Amino acid sequence: MPPLGPLFDRYTRASSRFDELTGDDGQLRPHWQYLASALAELERSDLAERQNEMRRLLFENGISYNIYDKDKVRTRAWPMDLLPLVMTSREWREIEVGVAQRAELMRHIMHDIYGEQMLIRHGLLPAQLVFGHRGFLAPCTSTALPLDQQLILYGADLGRDPQGNIWVTGDRTQAPSGIGYALAARTVSSRVLPSIFRESNVHPVLPFLRDVRSRLIQLAEDELDHIALLTPGPANEAHAEHAYLARQLGLPLVEGSDLQVTGGACYLVNGDQRKPISVLLRRLDDDYCDPLELNRHSLLGVPGGLQAVRNRTLSFANPLGSGILENPALMAFLPAICHFLLGEELKLPSQGTWWCGRPSDFDYVQAHWEDMVIRTFQPNRKNPALAVCRLSENAKRGLLDRIRARPEHYVAQSINAHASVPLLAGHEVVSHPAELRTFAVNAKGGFRVMTGGLARVGSSPDSWRFSSQLGGVSKDIWVLASEPQRYAQTLPQFLPRLHSGATNLQPHIFEKLLWLGRYTARAELLARMLRMSFERLADAPPQAPDALTHNLLKAITWQSTLYPGFVGPLGAAQLDDPVPELLRVTYTDLPGGLRHDITALAGSADILRDILGQQIFRTLTQLEMALQFPGDFSTARAAVDTTLTQLNSLQGLLWRTLTEDRSRSMIEVGLSLEQALGMVRLVRSFSTESGPAALANAGSLLFELTNTPSALTPDVTTSPHASVLRNLLLSDANAQSLRYQLMMLERLLRSLQSPGHTDPLASEITTRLTQLATWEPEQRVDPDGHLLDDSLVELDRWLRELAQGIEQRYLPRRPMRQTQLVEVA
Amino acid sequence: MRYRLRHYTHYNYAEAVDQAHNQVRMMLRDVPYQRCIERGIRVRPGPRYAKMHIDYFGNRVLYFEIDREHRDARIFATHIVEVNRPPGPPPEQTAAWEHVAARLHGLDDEQARSLQMYRLPSQLVSMPEGIAELSQPHFSTGRPILEAVQALSKSIFENFKFNPKATTIATPVADVLKQRQGVCQDFAHLMIAALRQRGLAARYVSGYIETLPPPGKPRLVGADASHAWVSVWCGDDGWLDIDPTNNLTPGENHITTAWGRDYDDVIPLNGVIFGGGDESSLTVRVDVERLPPAAS
Lengths: 825, 296
Prior knowledge:
Chain A is α+β, with helices and mostly antiparallel strands.
């Protein structure tokens, strides 16, 4: 036996499993030889470097997934193994043929269930498994889709028994996940192991993506830009995959709130602009797609979406209702159904499955009780499969009692050992079981299967469930071509965009853009105020801070809204020892604190990966890092300095990166809005205090805070207070003044309109600017620097209303439900 | 019997609504014993788009969108309908209930198999514990099905209190069974659960009932309400209706709107609106007015 090299020293195959790497004689299988010897030549350090490179590429492509931990969503790097799973063309051929047939069969079953229901009437499918299953959606029967549109995408989970036979362990028919991860895995594995990949002649997976795209285009009747990918949103576990897949397919990523059904057809709507959407590649489960007709307990999805399908103006891929096929009990009936519907034998067997609702099945299950995995036939995340042999005696009895009470609810499946695969663990290779997932698309001339897919490796040598949620790792599957794949290298990495890149219309993106701008401006002003306070305290002699510093501290509380802070009787006590409170404002995660604003800023940017560049994300990471660990006065002072520097470079990068008008305008709207609000608040803060700290004395401080050019000429004919007000609020020369910001806002809002349309909000700003032109600071302020009227309070209120108006017009709308209860008689 | 049926719904919103999508199941379905002479529905403000379809259960569903700003929405459904329901079979001559259940259970009866969805638990009709005890006294061996069903209806009528305050739309059958009170919808669900538990097929019927004023009092216009009862499959006699709330066999005073597995399949109005604020008020008025027989 040729030595496998130190990498494989500790590789011990499980005798109870089929091993992908080695044969029964312990020798490498021939198709692994090249990869194993090539890897053996790599230095340890080289291997580690490539693993780092792999993680970096995944991170840069935004490939992560979310896990649910005690009601919280946490983002994790997507765990991928450097070693691919290698399979031969001949092995794959069997999978390909079987998966294509199974997809075809699923399509026919769906067509029958939502149509004639011959399977039920002929006794081939128990009614319980259809009408008792939550996936059966009665409203979907009235869409009467043609057979050809019944199932577009299909995903199969595959296992391998100790003899090496492939069988199907799961059918994914609603929104099969993993196509994006599979593409990402390929991109990464081919770049991290470039020469090994090249020499291995691996079948490409990109043709599959093309087939998907062609099919979507065909469904859209060649209207390329009427297609979108529908995601539940950033909280979904696979949101990063949705975004990646959308990017790879050249589709816009939309959430339900971006869409609107009008006139029985679906549109992407933003402000006064709208674009028809006729095909939605969906990553939402069936009943979340239309809150009007499907799940009435949810408001996700598109109200009226199903009606649009009925009207033939909208297609979902997969069509709504396909969840009925995600029923493990179905597997027990497939061989007969396959005969009946396709006139063929089922080519790829299913995992041994018994439906306890059939007495003979239940008898068998009881006789082979210890070898069974039990689950309900409903799709239910909270009710996972139970392996009987791993239960306590008590739990076993309890389970059996539950099954006896409602046998028709339970499905038993045999535990077949999955094949084991090599997995890189540190510097050595170990053997863990894995499940494969691959995909089929209903293309011209029948279902086509991806030549490759994902291997999902269990987290321990005896795993029997495979999921990222359970700590599993994924692998790229390399199907080796018998002939060199010459064309593989010439395929483009990305397919061209289907939609014109000039307009990002999705309101959910607008929302993030607006808040990106708002949090940037908000954080910047607060950071400036904090920096100035730190400077004044550091420079001051050790006695108590002066009155102007007091005023600055109070302004920080008003700006951050972290009450009581330095305000009121409680706050007064902090004024002479302000450092603890300043540290709190810097590091708190409460809304209004600096760290909170920075986190929120980074959060807004997170789903804007398509729009913002990689460099921006590095800056954001540094921004978050700066405030990550709370420290003392000098640490905080340095952190605030870094924050300001990074915020400046962020803004510079934003302007250099964003070439697209609407996206850029929306960030600017956020910036101007928040700067206007900040200015009004700041002026108010310094005019409500009497004494030496009043406006005139605070002038230079305020100019420095707001970045107002110091060269502004003081107007000697007016009072010094009025001069400050004029410079901060009304000046044309000061790009930070309120007036300037309002002029920006007016221009920006007008630019968001289609030609010939007017935005009522922009007109409102015009009116306000006219009023401001007649606003005479001399008559508004008394000799002590007090404001004489409520005009700034009113301005503040108006600006908040303006912000609400902008949200209503451009941001996602919130739906509500109305029903009429049956009245009593 | 000939009726004019008016069903008026008025939503008053606290804040403007800028778009509304609705599905309405207020139009009477076609049934052999009911003839619609007039069938009309008006929506204000006028919808920009409206479309009707027949759902899985054969009910008429109207979908409409209002997509301009509005502060209130009104829906007027008006029918003139003639109800001519033949009397049902004599209860004692109907099939034994176990035979009906066996037919439904059998795998060789194609018609029975097509009724399976009415035999299984549904969204709002689960099989709570104690449901078998509810029907136990009335389903003795070999008893004709309609007799048993009528006895069950009578026992619900006598042992459950009609109390609109006791339940909401979301009250599960189990709670109704425990509290022993509810409204027509609850009693219908309860009875359906009891019948399905016996292996029978039962469905939920929504509609109206003519209410007569107390003796000597004038009829109050708009004081009627929509109503719900049960239909049970009785083998060769087909589907027969029973109204457990009033303990009677629906005749010419019951007007059928829609049916399904439970209330969830026949909700009169279901909508999703954008805007509207938190406090909106709803007014519903139903009027079932008896008309003189048509001069033919």
